[in-house]
Design brief:
Radius of gyration: 18 Å
Oligomer: single chain
Number of helices: 10
Number of strands: 10
Structural class: alpha+beta
Largest sheet: 6 strands, antiparallel
Distance between the termini: 21 Å
Helix content: 25-40%
Length: 257
Amino acid sequence: RVFIALHGSGGEDGALQGFLDSINLPYTGSNAAASLTGMDKKLSKLVWQAQGLPTPAWQMVADLHALEQAVQTLGLPLMVKPVSEGSSIGMSLLETHEQIASAWQLAAGQGQPVMTERYIQGDEYTAGLVAGETLPLIRITTANKFYDFEAKYQSDETGYHCPAGLDNDQEQSLRVLASEAFTAIGGSGWGRIDLMVDADRRPWLIEANTVPGLTDHSLLPMAAAATGWNFNQLALAILSTSMGQGETADGRRVFNG
């Protein structure tokens, strides 16, 4: 069997999963279709909308003129992002009309379709999921305008708060929403859902990750550690999800054993 911990094109978008399916070799995490859907922000948002799950208003933009029209339709501020990129690469926060050209160039420069999305002002959370269980939420704080590449990988000022500072009902509600969002795209095994909560305490689904970061300082291992699970236990739990349908219970015994 294969333990998949690759990110981006080829490893997270269903290509590797489809190849492994073709040679009948088991692997960790979501199948090819769910991986493709999770990697493609347009597809995941279409699925969530069809399921009645909350996600910010959005629009595909084919060129600079289309982005200008989207600004008129959706209003400012907006997030502009490549559809199938991770780590906030190519993303920018569009706050003024003067930034439209540079935002388009940054996103389109990744060689992918581009989308724009209504910017949610509020608190950012992420929810890890392993073997059918939603882990404690992590609240993310940054001194930057949004949780961009620099905030994720370079800044010493980015904060990760677990427990997230929510009351039990709020925490449980967001965990349930994350689980529903992951299930809706066909996700299985393990993954992560990123979401925002606005000033009115309304949650908004931002994106899905079917192969989250798995270093000792990544978000999902951080949430697992908050439950008392060490890295080896987490790795075994993820590996157990490659055993096929109906073996989740066994996976949990490996995980807790």
